[in-house]
Each structure stands twice: as structure tokens, then as C-alpha cells.
Design goal:
This protein has 402 residues and is α/β, with parallel strands linked by helices. It has 2 domains: 205 residues, Nucleotidyltransferase, domain 5, CATH 3.30.420.40; 187 residues, Nucleotidyltransferase, domain 5. It is 37% helix and 21% strand. It has 13 helices and 12 strands. Helix 3 packs parallel to helix 4 and helix 11 crosses helix 12. The chain is globular. The chain starts with a helix and ends with a strand. 46% of the residues are buried.
Length: 402
């Protein structure tokens, strides 16, 4: 037996495993790194978050990623070059972070790398009947494994597609294991570039759980800020608060067939981008609006599409005596205006930070991919009702250091 296989077998049988989870989202602000310690797997999983941080990308790195991000036409040479380059960059970030934590690579059992999504193409959003759903993440895991010396699990989304899903959202698997409650109906909402949620009815019957994207999170607002203000995001919603919501523009940006698709569904900045906004402004005759009014409208656009999706899924539970709590994570939770809109739109639902459940809200997705890696090595294939896979699956590909 190859020594790496022996090593992997030993890791799977350890009483606890230290796993580094990595997440780089569509905001492209940096790499989220979460060091988790796992005991057990599946419903018996016990997780301890040891450290969590975000390592920011410098402007050169951000521009390199943007050059191939969410574009129908890119340079194949540039894409080939950036894939290993990003893997090596992530490896460097991991090693530097371990130094800052006073740790060495030999103390880590596994790395779980989500990679950087550069294109997401669910079948519902492309017209070619010869092809199904597809997604592409870069940041080659072999480079991470070789440069760090740590076994790396990556490319989680491909198995989900192979089993009949759309490759997203995958948070449902970790949400069920970590956050299901016997007494509280819970909604786990993550507002990144795209917004997605998992609905966990009390008791967590697998057949009643559902996870889906809702539409844009920060993606259009952030792109608008980069273009018009040379800023990564609207800090504290300062600019959006100066504007007024324009109802005709709001109506136009909501007029897309995606919002009427059945759940679960996925989407990305391939649809919700500045060109989408431009066409909506033309159709609504609102090209004259101030930047402040546009941002105010985009902010409410994100909030209303989230709220309408949640109301549609939980249905009769709204306004009943059943306790419903919504726990928010992701960059959007730091937008106070967006939170105000959600609280006003979701009356009867407690809107809380994921902190209330004992987890750092900015580290959630990195934690969840660490959990998927733990399941890939030490768990069983999983199937969650309402998440569109044909059979139970184990996600992640294995890269050895040598």
C-alpha cells in the first residue's frame, strides 16, 4: 500500500482530526481560513473551531482573478496560468497563517479547499440542451498539497453535479449536521456574492430540509462600488443610505425568470452583474438616477428577493406559533441597511447572527467545507431531501503531497 494511502487511512481512524477549511467567494476580498478539530462524523460530529481568519488579496491578485472571473470569453492561456498560481498563493497564505498561529504543517491532518469559482452554469440558465449543469473552480489543489505537505481535499461541487444537482448550495450538508434543532425551526442564511439559505424545520427530518440560492447578495452592489467609487464595498451602507429606492428600477431588476424557478436553484454573477443592472435601467428608464439611488435600490433588491424566497419556502409556518429563527453569516451581514430591510420584511422571524449558535459568521463557509472534507475521509455518503441529488454522495477529490 502506498504510504499516502496508509497515512489517509490513519487520519480517518484518528479520534480527532485537525482540518483547515478554505473559502474564497465571489466578493474576492481574500481567503477565509478556518482551523477546525473534528471528532466523529455525520450526525455524531463534534466540531471545535480553533482559529479563523481572512487573509486579504492584494490588488494585483484581485485583478488576476477578475481577469477570468464570470466572463463568457477569457484567454485560455491566462486561465491555465492562474489556476496553479492561485493554488500556490493559497498554499503560501496557509503556511504564513500557521506561523502566525504558532503552528506547523505537521500538526494539520487535512486541507479542504473550495477554490475560487470563476463560472457557474446551472442548466436553468444556459440554453444548450446538449449540456447539463456545470461549474468551475480554480486554485489547483495539487499545488496546495505539494507546497504545504498536507493532504488536500478539493473540487467538492463536481460530485454534486454528477449526482444530478447543480453544484450549489452545498451548505445544506453542514447546516444539517451542525445546526439542526429538535425544538426550533431554523433558517441558515448566508449573504455572500450570492445569497443562499437552508431551512431546517424542528426535528430535522431529512426529507423536509431544503437549501437554495435566492439571487444576488453583494455581487451587484460590490461591482457597482468598484466601478463608480473604486471601493470594494459600501462600508456600513454609507452611500446607499444617502439614496432613495426607485420603485420602477426595483421592479425591473426583479423581473427575471430565475425568481419563478422552483426550489432548489442556483445562480451566480454570470446573471446578476452590472450588465443586468444596465439593461434593467434601460427598460425602466432610470439611467438618470444618482449612484446613491441605484445603491439604495440594489440594497432593497437583495433584501426583498431573500425575504420572498424564505416566505415561499416556509409558507404556513409564517405567523404561526412555531418559533422561527434566522441566523445570518457572510459579508452581507455587515451591511446594516440590508439587515434593517430583512428585519422589516421578515416580521415574525427572529433575525440573529450566527454568533448566537457559537460560530464565527465570517468563517461559516470555510468551516462547512472543512466538514465536507471530514465526511469524505471519515464519514458516509449523504443525501439531503430537497437538494436534488439522485443518490447519497461523498464530495471532494484527494491530492497527495507527493
Amino acid at each position: 500500500m502506498h504510504r499516502n494511502i496508509k497515512n489517509l487511512y490513519a487520519i480517518a481512524n484518528k479520534p480527532t482530526r485537525k482540518v483547515i477549511g478554505l473559502m474564497s467567494g465571489t466578493s474576492m476580498d481574500g481567503l477565509d481560513i478556518a482551523l477546525c478539530e473534528f471528532e466523529g462524523s455525520g450526525s455524531n460530529t463534534k466540531l471545535k473551531l480553533i482559529h479563523a481568519t481572512t487573509v486579504s488579496y492584494n490588488e494585483e491578485a484581485r485583478q488576476n482573478i477578475l481577469s477570468v472571473f464570470s466572463k463568457e470569453i477569457v484567454s485560455l492561456e491566462k486561465l491555465c496560468l492562474i489556476n496553479p498560481w492561485l493554488g500556490k498563493l493559497h498554499a503560501y497564505m496557509i503556511l504564513e497563517t500557521l506561523k502566525a498561529w504558532g503552528m506547523t504543517a505537521s500538526e494539520i491532518d487535512l486541507i479542504a479547499s473550495h477554490g475560487q469559482t470563476i463560472y457557474h452554469a446551472p442548466k436553468s440558465l444556459h440554453p444548450n440542451d446538449a449540456f447539463g449543469s456545470a461549474t468551475l473552480q480554480i486554485g489547483e489543489a495539487d499545488h496546495i498539497a505539494v507546497d504545504t505537505g498536507i493532504i488536500t481535499i478539493s473540487d467538492f461541487r463536481q460530485k454534486h453535479i454528477a449526482a444530478g444537482g447543480e453544484g450549489a448550495p452545498l451548505s445544506v450538508y453542514g447546516d444539517h449536521i451542525l445546526f439542526a434543532s429538535k425544538t426550533e425551526n431554523r433558517i441558515l442564511l448566508n449573504i455572500g456574492g450570492i445569497s443562499n439559505f437552508t431551512y431546517l424545520p424542528a426535528g430535522a427530518d431529512l426529507n423536509t430540509i431544503l437549501s437554495s440560492d435566492t439571487g444576488p447578495g453583494n455581487t451587484i452592489m460590490d461591482a457597482y462600488m468598484r466601478t463608480h467609487f473604486n471601493q470594494s464595498f459600501d462600508k456600513d451602507a454609507t452611500i446607499a443610505r444617502k439614496g432613495q429606492v426607485h420603485q420602477e428600477l426595483l421592479k425591473a431588476v426583479k423581473a427575471n425568470s430565475f425568481f419563478s424557478l422552483p426550489f432548489p436553484k442556483t445562480v451566480g454573477p454570470e446573471l446578476f452583474n452590472l450588465e443586468y443592472l444596465k439593461q434593467a435601467q434601460i427598460q425602466s428608464n432610470t439611467t438618470h438616477l444618482s449612484t446613491e439611488d441605484v445603491l439604495a435600490t440594489l440594497n432593497l433588491f437583495t433584501a426583498t428577493t431573500i425575504a420572498e424566497a424564505i416566505k415561499q419556502v416556509i409558507g404556513s409556518a409564517m405567523g404561526s406559533n412555531n418559533l422561527i429563527a434566522l441566523y445570518i453569516s457572510g459579508g452581507g451581514m455587515h451591511n446594516p441597511l440590508l439587515l434593517e430591510h430583512l428585519i422589516n420584511l421578515l416580521t415574525g422571524i427572529k433575525v440573529l447572527s450566527l454568533n448566537e449558535l457559537g460560530y464565527h459568521p465570517d468563517a461559516k463557509e470555510a468551516i462547512l467545507f472543512a466538514l465536507l472534507a471530514n465526511e469524505a475521509i471519515a464519514g458516509e455518503a449523504m443525501q439531503i431531501g430537497g437538494n436534488a441529488t439522485k443518490k447519497p454522495i461523498t464530495m471532494g477529490k484527494i491530492s497527495f503531497p507527493d
